[in-house]
Amino acid sequence: MNYKHLHYFWAVAKAGSVTRASERLHLTPQTISGQLSLFEEVLGEALFNRSGRQFELTETGRMVLSYADEIFSLGQELEETLHHRPTDRPLQFRVGVTDVVPKAVAYQLLEPAMQFEQPPRIICREGKVAALLAELALHRLDIVIADSPMPRTVDVRGFSHLLGECGLTFFATAELAQQYQGAFPQCLDGAPMLLPGEDVAVRSRLTRWFSDHRIRPRITGEFDDGALMTAFGQAGVGIFAAPTAIEEQVTRQHEVVSIGTTEEVIEQFYAISVERKLTHPAVVAISRAARQELFIKRRPGEKASG
């Protein structure tokens, strides 16, 4: 639909004649009449019953006018809002975080966006990836943070931007860690283990790694929610793994110790957007900080096994 034609129709309907509409729009009556006829031709419906110079709306015309009223009323409201909004109004940043992304990682990723001179108002939604991508497609979210690229099965036009990747570190309470001392990762054989759920991307890599090293842990729990898995680990129910990028936060906040680290199992984090190139200032800040600060390669000589 040509919205210029819709606007000409709307002006004629409001004015009651082409002549009065042309005066308001500063166009010739011939231009208005020609564009109006073309609009009716495109729609395949007559919008006016013409009686001399007077134009009376048809039933279709009345329906189209009701939509035009709403469209141009919203346009006027938008213009007034833009002209009168406070200059100190914060930028809005709408983020979807898939429920399998560890909360500590999500915070570390989003924190750089809060360092602006005028921090944005952050609106954070958590949920399943399919539901969040649907919101992204409707432009209700600026990005979705996930642990894997956008699934090919989801019929949404979007682009996956790798924020970074890191290995896994295994944690346990000090008491439990004492019971499974020895060379890592063999010390995990037979140990009580808490695993992420089947929907978590790293789950299959982790189980493959166990198999490659002939490690058969005793599975004591499986969790879709990483925060719940960590809570069980803090209670001593089993050993659990978390991204090495947040090793310091995990040990400090949950009073657990590190048993060992592997770089063979990689956990990845993505920003999914409808843009091929990231342009939102907050998203650009997140991407830059993730690559330069959060997901940095382990330096030679640091403890790592597997």
Characterise the protein shown here.
This protein is an alpha/beta fold and 306 residues long. Helices cover 42% and strands 24% of the residues. The chain is built from 11 helices and 10 strands. It has helices at 3-15, 18-25, 29-43, 59-84, 103-110, 129-137, 174-179, 202-212, 226-234, 247-254, 281-294; strands at 48-51, 54-57, 92-98, 121-127, 143-146, 159-172, 192-196, 218-223, 240-243, 257-273. A 6-stranded mixed β-sheet has the order 4-3-5-10-6-9, sandwiched between helices. A two-stranded antiparallel ribbon has the order 1-2. A two-stranded parallel ribbon has the order 7-8. Helix 8 links the parallel strand 7 and strand 8. Helix 1 (3-15) crosses helix 2 and helix 2 (18-25) packs across helix 3. Residues 298-306 have low confidence and may be disordered.
Task: Briefly characterize the structure.
The chain is α/β, with parallel strands linked by helices and 306 residues long. Helices cover 42% and strands 24% of the residues. A hairpin with a 2-residue loop joins strand 1 (48-51) and strand 2.
How are the SSEs ordered, and which strands pair?
Layout: H1 3-15, H2 18-25, H3 29-43, E1 48-51, E2 54-57, H4 59-84, E3 92-98, H5 103-110, E4 121-127, H6 129-137, E5 143-146, E6 159-172, H7 174-179, E7 192-196, H8 202-212, E8 218-223, H9 226-234, E9 240-243, H10 247-254, E10 257-273, H11 281-294
Parallel strand pairs: 3-4, 3-5, 7-8
Antiparallel strand pairs: 1-2, 5-10, 6-9, 6-10
Helix pairs in contact: 1-2, 1-3, 1-4, 2-3
